[in-house]
Amino acid sequence: MSDDQDHGFETDALHVGQEEPDAEARSRAPPLYQTTSYVFEDAEDAAKQFALEKPGHIYSRLMNPTVGMLQERLAALEGGVGAVATASGMASLNLATFLLADVGDNVVTASSLYGGTYTYYTHTAPRNGVETRFVDTLDYDAYAEAIDENTAYVHCETIGNPSLVTPDFERLAEIAHDHGVPFFVDNTFATPYLCNPIEHGADLVWNSTTKWIHGHGTTVGGVLVDGGSFPWEEHADKYPEIAGDNPAYHGVNFRERFEDAAFTYAAIARGLRDLGCQQSPFDAWQTMQGLETLPARMDRHCDNAMGVAEFLADHPEVSWVTYPGLEDHETHDTASKYLDGGYGGMITFGLDAGYDAARTTVESTEIASLLANVGDAKTLIIHPASTTHQQLTDEEKAAAGVTDDMVRLSVGTESVEDIKADLDQAIGQATN
């Protein structure tokens, strides 16, 4: 394949990072390099690699050929200049915060967030001296009002979990950049197949690759993608890890050394080295297998989700349905602008009978599995108020968009008629 030829997403999902077969064995599948370390050519080669003066593989906590293929592929699909694969999505979030925020800094984030992200910001980040300022996801004036000279970044989710709202990325990017801070987006629910936040002004993107990117419920992972767009050198005093003479890496200025990919290399050399949150070669190898079929799976997820959402909207026992593809969804127009070709595989809905009926529904399905994951090829169901968002106060649940009667549904790739029939019988058991 020619490096200067543009290819479609479906082609890049299969080939980027391994345009030619493996040189040693001529393997068409990506090889699995299950090794901790690599033999240097000589002492000078070792010294130059450790000084970041020569590319290569030093140690698999920092870099690995299999992981490198995944990173190159995801960077291309997200439209970034580099990517760092991590042990989980939460590891990606923590890695970015580690690099960008210092003691006394704050983060401004949308309040509609995955429960783990919410508790990271409310309980973990503060232990490191970082304050979190939550704002209504769609109140753009509130973002601007919350930012001050100590704000490290502005954050939101492409499709909020579990509210499923899609904010206006271009407005948020403008707000963040007007205040001299990067705009950071969790793209997990959309994946790069449906949305490319970097095209709309995001500087950094993270994903839990555990979800749709891998898509088969076997492998936990995350990725942090560098858009290469933020002018770190203009804010060197604020971001010394990236644009200053880094004392933790013998004075290297990552911005001067690696230019647009400064954040990527700082995340590797400082973040992975010291936090040890790297993705294993085996997990990266597994994730690439799932990534190859992402376009076909995502099309099916979206088609099925629309069919199920329409079915639930007409169900007599269902009081409300939230799905970005429905015209009555509060951010349907914004989702239509930013999501390309589909509205995702997530639905939330409520039952007239309330909390107990919602809990009975999730334990009565026969096809949908009651478990704490989303983005599997199989349909998954859960009651957020008593599980994923249980640790939140009533006020925090309300801010996150979680209600007692809410059922969260990750729509799989099974027959859509079978999914609808399964939900119908489960709701029937809960309400009769």
UniProtKB/TrEMBL annotation:
Cofactor(s), names only, from the UniProt record: pyridoxal 5'-phosphate
Any GO molecular function: cysteine synthase activity
InterPro entries: Cys/Met-Metab_PyrdxlP-dep_enz, Cys_met_metab_PP, OAc-hSer/O-AcSer_sulfhydrylase, PyrdxlP-dep_Trfase, PyrdxlP-dep_Trfase_major, PyrdxlP-dep_Trfase_small
GO cellular component: cytoplasm
Keywords: Lyase, Pyridoxal phosphate, Transferase
Domain of life (superkingdom): Archaea
Region described as Disordered: spans on this chain: 1-31
Tagged with keyword Lyase: yes
Pfam families: Cys_Met_Meta_PP (PF01053)
Biased composition (Basic and acidic residues): 1-13
Any single biological process term in GO: L-homocysteine biosynthetic process
Family matches, as PANTHER family: HOMOCYSTEINE/CYSTEINE SYNTHASE, HOMOCYSTEINE_CYSTEINE SYNTHASE
Family: Belongs to the trans-sulfuration enzymes family.
The name this protein goes by in its record: O-acetylhomoserine (Thiol)-lyase
Organism expressing this protein natively: Haloarcula marismortui ATCC 33799
